[in-house]
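Task: sequence in, structure out. Protein: Adenosylcobinamide-GDP ribazoletransferase.
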Amino acid sequence: MRSLILMMQFFTRIPIKIDISAKEEDFSKGIVFMPLVGLIVGLFNYGIYSVADHFLGETLALVFWFAANIFITGGIHLDGLGDTCDGLFSARDKERILEIMKDSRIGTNGVIAIALDFTFRLSILSAMPYKDMGIAIILAPMVAKTLVLLLMGISKYARANGGMGGLFYSHMSIKRLILGISSGIIMILLFGSLKGLVAMIGSTVIIMAFRNFVISKIDGMTGDTLGAASELAEISFMMFIYVLERNIF
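Result:
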């Protein structure tokens, strides 16, 4: 329970006023619960969407869904997306890229990336059949957390020291990674059945391509690139749900 509370406090803005005096190794212990935290975020988002859809209609409901997602996460992954794009598309060497990503200021590439994130999310869901909305909204954050765990397991940390991502890498174990990823797959099957699993596999391909690109630039992952991967995974999952509905299922 201690590790779950820590993950909730780190990845969400849910007001859990409990001082657990976390140590560095507690973050790596908590990775088992990352998919569950993603599921909680997804359920919250869907609850806000459903209420808004009932009273305001589908168009405004999508806006409220997007706002709910930013509210509950504090925009932590959007921040990572912006920093990642500012750094990776700066045409600099590894050390300078890492410096740019650490800068709290946002540049042109970051603004463009966040704007595209908004556009893709709202466009995909606005075109999606209503019966698939629940799967897409609820499971996307959970799938993203599961794929981030996969990235952590197969990629080293790019910074020599420091950074929030390093908290999770410092005492990471294969056992915890397997447990976390397995729990994500099980939840996909319970909530999303075959369509959700196929969409997750498609999203994995996209995330692996993103990993290869990042490693070619900075030889590893950081907290920012993992946050960017989370955003990309959510959008990819929703896109594959939409494509599967139109063409196969």
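The two ends are 39 Å apart (CA to CA).
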